[in-house]
Specification:
The chain is 30% helix and 30% strand. The strands form two sheets. It has a seven-stranded mixed sheet, sandwiched between helices. Strands 6-7 form a two-stranded antiparallel ribbon. The chain is α/β, with parallel strands linked by helices. Strand 4, helix 5 and strand 5 form a beta-alpha-beta unit. Helix 1 packs parallel to helix 4.
Length: 205
C-alpha cells in the first residue's frame, strides 16, 4: 500500500495538471450522471480517487453542501485545495487508499472515475464492492467510470482492468441495480483518445 501512495504522490509532485491523461476542464459526463439522480443540494456525495479533479469545483458552484473527496495522494488533494482557496473549507478531504478506507458515515452518492479499474486482483475487487455497498445509503447511487474493452490497458505505468457493460454489471449486481451505461472517448491533453465505460447504479433494496 505504501508503494502505491509513494507512486501517486510522486506523480502529482512532479507533473502539472495538463500533463495527466485524465485531466478534464469540465467533467461533463460525471455531472450528467449526478444530475440524473435528481439530488437535493444537501445530498452527501463522495468522490473516490478525486485527486485534482474539478468535479468538486462544479458541485460547489451548483450549491452542493456535503461533498467529500478521497484520494490516496495527499499531494493531489493539496493541489485541489490550493486551487479552491477559501472554498476548500466547504469540502471534506480524506487521504486514504480505497483498500484502507474505514468510513465513519454513509453517503447518498458514490462517484468513481477511474479508480476501480486499477484494482486487478479479485480480492481487491470484492472488497471494493462490499465497501461501496456498506457506505452507500439505502436506495443511494453509484456513478462509476472505467476504461472500456477498447480503452488503454495501462495508466500511469500501472496495469488496469478493462470492463464491458456486462462484466461491470455482473460484479455489482449482487448489491446494485444498473440504471444506465454509456461509452465515450475522452480526449486527453495530449490529443489522444481513451475509451471509457460510464455506468450508474442504484443500491438494491
Amino acid at each position: 500500500m505504501e508503494d502505491s501512495k509513494n507512486h501517486w504522490n510522486s506523480i502529482y509532485r512532479t507533473k502539472k495538471s495538463d500533463e495527466f491523461s485524465w485531466t478534464q476542464e469540465i467533467p461533463t459526463t460525471s455531472l450528467n450522471f449526478l444530475h440524473s439522480f435528481g439530488l437535493e443540494k444537501n445530498a452527501s456525495i463522495i468522490d473516490i480517487g478525486g485527486g485534482e479533479s474539478k468535479l468538486v469545483d462544479f458541485l460547489l458552484q451548483e450549491g452542493f453542501t456535503d461533498i467529500t473527496v478521497l484520494d490516496i495522494s495527499y499531494q493531489a488533494l493539496q493541489h485541489a485545495k490550493d486551487r479552491l482557496g477559501a472554498e476548500a473549507g466547504k469540502v471534506n478531504w480524506i487521504v486514504s487508499d480505497i483498500m484502507e478506507f474505514n468510513p465513519a458515515r454513509k453517503y447518498d452518492v458514490w462517484h468513481d472515475r477511474a479508480t476501480f479499474h486499477f484494482l486487478t486482483d479479485e480480492h481487491q475487487i470484492r472488497k471494493y464492492v462490499s465497501l461501496a455497498s456498506d457506505v452507500i445509503q439505502e436506495k443511494g447511487y453509484m456513478a462509476i467510470g472505467t476504461f472500456s474493452e477498447q480503452g488503454p490497458s495501462k495508466c500511469s505505468g500501472l496495469s488496469i482492468k478493462q470492463y464491458s457493460e456486462q462484466a461491470l454489471n455482473k460484479i455489482l449486481q449482487l448489491y446494485f441495480k444498473k440504471i444506465k451505461c454509456i461509452t465515450e472517448d475522452h480526449l486527453t491533453p495530449f490529443h489522444t483518445l481513451q475509451n471509457f465505460l460510464f455506468c450508474s447504479f442504484r443500491k438494491a433494496a
